[in-house]
Specification:
With 240 residues, this protein is mainly alpha-helical. Helix content is 64%, strand content 3%. A two-stranded antiparallel sheet has the order 1-2. The protein starts with a strand and ends with a strand.
Length: 240
């Protein structure tokens, strides 16, 4: 009987085997060189630049250097901000490890470990703490969009991990692509501000905040969806 397998979606098939195994990604094919994946290096550089911008004021644990306006009615505000940034940093670092094809193909155990770190020491706690911080924001703009992004980040991360544990790797790939889209949405707010500064175009802070709260993750989800469709392999026959 002939059955068909697809890389994305569908029931458990050969595509639902871990990368590097028979029927999985990379089986019987030469490894794709890193320069054939032009998005990898820019992603690492962009994450590194973002972290170098965000982290320094918080390394000395000095509340007076906080870039977030602290609410005096919330004594733990600074501690929660620092924890949110710490877990977010873990998420961004492990994102780079998760999408690194060489690590996933040659060291699947490290890929699994970094994936668990991404979910349980990065995405979930960072998103939850982000939700805790929202009611205390000095400028309450874009909060609904940011809250939906935080919930989406948690859901896609947990579902993606669940699919991996069930060995449904095609669905795992799809859900984690959307999870990473939510993880990287925080970069867009800084990009919007930097673009405004460099171009000299004055943007209303409310408009900028709403754009950062909504467009950042909506654009990323659209890019992730386009990428998944573009990289999906057409059905191919397999005999059992």
């Amino acid at each position: 009987m002939t059955r068909y397998v697809e890389e994305v979606g569908g029931p458990a098939t050969q595509a639902d085997q871990p990368p590097g195994t028979a029927g999985g990604t990379g089986a019987g094919r030469p490894a794709t060189r890193w320069w054939r994946r032009p998005w990898v290096v820019p992603l690492v550089v962009l994450n590194a630049a973002f972290l170098l911008f965000v982290l320094p004021p918080y390394l000395g644990l000095d509340p007076s250097r906080s870039r977030v306006v602290l609410n005096e009615g919330f004594p733990a505000h600074y501690a929660v901000v620092v924890a949110h940034i710490l877990f977010g940093t873990i998420a961004l670092v492990t994102v780079c490890l998760q999408v690194w094809p060489w690590l996933r193909r040659r060291h699947p155990a490290l890929h699994r470990i970094s994936g668990r770190l991404y979910v349980f020491a990065g995405a979930v706690p960072s998103a939850l703490l982000g939700l805790v911080l929202m009611p205390f924001a000095a400028v309450p703009v874009g909060l609904l969009g940011s809250a939906l992004a935080a919930v989406g980040w948690i859901v896609t991360s947990l579902v993606g991990l669940h699919m991996a544990r069930r060995r449904r790797f095609a669905e795992h790939r799809r859900w984690m692509a959307y999870s990473i889209a939510f993880a990287l949405q925080t970069l867009w707010g800084r990009i919007f501000v930097l673009t405004s500064v460099l171009t000299g175009v004055t943007v209303n802070p409310v408009v900028l905040g709403e754009a950062a709260g909504w467009l950042s993750w909506l654009m990323n989800l659209a890019i992730a969806h386009w990428w998944l469709r573009r990289t999906a392999r057409p059905p191919r026959p397999a005999f059992s």
